[in-house]
Amino acid sequence: MDRTTLLHLPKALLHDHLDGGLRVETVLELADEIRYRNLPASEPAALAEWFHQGESGSLAQYLEAFGHVVAVMQTESALERVAYEAGVDLAADGVVYAELRYAPTQHLDRGLSPEAVVAAVEAGLDRARRETGIVTATILCALRHLTDSEEVARLAARFAGDSVAGFDLAGPELGYPPDDHLVACRIARDSGLGLTLHAGEADGPESVWRARARCGAHRIGHGVRVIEDTAIVDGAVVDLGAVARMVRDQRVPLELCPTSNIDTGVAPDLAHHPLGMLYRAGFAVTLNTDDRLMSAVSLTDEFAHAVELHGFDAAALEEVTVRAVEVGFADWPTRRRLIEDVIRPAYREIAAS
Fold first, then answer.
1. Catalytic (active-site) positions
2. Mean pLDDT per 10-residue interval, the chain, length 353 residues
3. Are 285 and 320 in contact (CB under 8 A)?
4. For the chain, what are the domain ranges?
5. CB 95 within 8 A of CB 129
6. What CATH number was assigned to the domain covering residues 3-342?
């Protein structure tokens, strides 16, 4: 499949950080509006190069770039603009279903309330939905190294069934186990929210086990290091440890973000990312971008990598796309409509051509 075909295929995105996907020009304009003078570059090309964390080599270093984008997302107008542009940009990339996540308490420096942050993001996404037809949902994040996870979970619960569909723990993984936030996870689950926790990105399979077995996560954000609990022979998974078996056999969805994983040191390059091995071993993988700005990536890019480097064909892409929508957190009638009326017909057309 060529790039044009991949671009126009309907796609579903479960793991995309709102503050990791800004347009470079928007960062510069928002910084100018609030007189933020700490950006590391003032020209779009130079700033894009600085933001690209392709050689960061670790999650901790990768996360450092977020300070600047969060700094310019401290007003209602900025949050609405960023959310709107995210929806428009994703729709232009062929994404028909997108869940965008963000940490609302990171946007209070200029006096906004958490509720105002949620309302501003929803206003921007609503505008993008009306313009493009993209279906979106939001996930509120708490950060593992902070102590406000219960507050964020209660905020998410207040908007459950309205503008918020899920709760997540993000931020640095090493040294901050998810079960430090068991109460927040319970609040989210009890309110009917979807629960997806970052795990198995910077830390190993035990982090995935904690997220699933201790916290009750419905999905795993990344989860790529579950491959460390398998035996591999000649590039194929031939045996599973207890955690890997649980993840595969219980059909725990993995929100894989290959390019981001390479940037943070999971594998030396995309050809050696375990995406293909996990897929062929029967894990419930999905394809995601994580941070479009910091990793200079689109979901079409990730589809192309899966095809060119991991042997995915149209049937495999359809499988991971349908799976992503099936395990999404938005209302089921909307997601079922996308599967039956948009995604499957498009892939049938590819198969017939």
1. 201
2. 94 98 97 94 92 67 82 98 98 98 98 98 98 98 97 98 95 93 98 98 96 98 98 98 98 98 92 98 98 96 98 98 98 98 96 82
3. yes
4. 3-342
5. no
6. 3.20.20.140
